């Protein structure tokens, strides 16, 4: 399909699918004939696409660090933090052990049980993936369970490109448990277990504690690895330098970060900030 | 919500809004920083980040604070909050109400202690 040069092109993290669509409907109130082209992927995959030449007017990602790592300063000047979230363990009411699992025993229930399929998203493509690995490292320390990280990392059954795919897989019964954002879990009406703030990556008060955990993302060539330190979850948005629709893009961002956007984000389980 | 003379209001049943106004009066700050500072003061009663962000937005709607985007040197831009004249008035009235509450508590405790000495032993 040939891209329309006048369309507003928005590229976003899969976790933002629903709130971004709802904000476009607000923009359409003012510009009912505006054509919008929407594309989504894991945040690192989105950023790589822009770095490799994809032209978009708005890019909204699940981690501002992805902007810093891949897009700033060559493709983007600044990113704007607009929402926060937390990691949870999502499941389905038909998942094995779903009536037994809780905040205290999840680390005993999941690993080593062949009847249970748990999954995460791919840390190379999606912040939810490396945040899961960070959560597991922090859980090992927090619960005083040496070896827990390795046990969990050796035991997952599926790896998905983005957090939204995890939630869909849960709904379809392909997996039983998924390490997921609270917002996506709420949007899909899935049951979930909350983790304590010391490990759920929601609280700036624990920023120093989160930073004890780190994930190395393999690069395409030796020596091109990226190290990611644990940090509170912060979603960010930006207008790439090569946008053809900067004024419209700014109008969209004003909606997303303004009072109506805040209502949309809140209704979708995110915390506008 | 407690009505002030100027029509402004501030939630006095909880300390969150006056505490945030006090922190912002000391130094305009981002929500991220305010959460860290707020919880450093209230270590025994941890307030969730969402509660602080929601109160900041509510106070902006009520005109007690304003916000603008500010980019950090090497980080992203975040909303930075500053206090308004309305906010300063609301904070002053919140402090006045707390003073009155403090006096009520002190009077109550003084009376209790006197009675305990008078009655002696384990009563009241």
UniProtKB/TrEMBL annotation, chain A:
Residues passing through the membrane, by range: none
Taxonomic superkingdom: Bacteria
SUPFAM superfamilies: Periplasmic binding protein-like II (SSF53850)
GO terms (BP aspect): molybdate ion transport
GO molecular function per UniProt: molybdate ion binding
Family: Belongs to the bacterial solute-binding protein 1 family. WtpA subfamily.
Name of protein: Molybdate/tungstate transport system substrate-binding protein
Species: Desulfallas thermosapovorans DSM 6562
Taxonomic classification: Bacteria, Bacillati, Bacillota, Clostridia, Eubacteriales
TrEMBL record, chain B:
GO MF annotation list: DNA binding
Keyword Transferase: no
Pfam families linked: PadR
Domain Transcription regulator PadR N-terminal: 21-92
Coiled-coil portions: 91-118
Entry keywords, A to Z: Coiled coil, DNA-binding
Protein name: DNA-binding PadR family transcriptional regulator
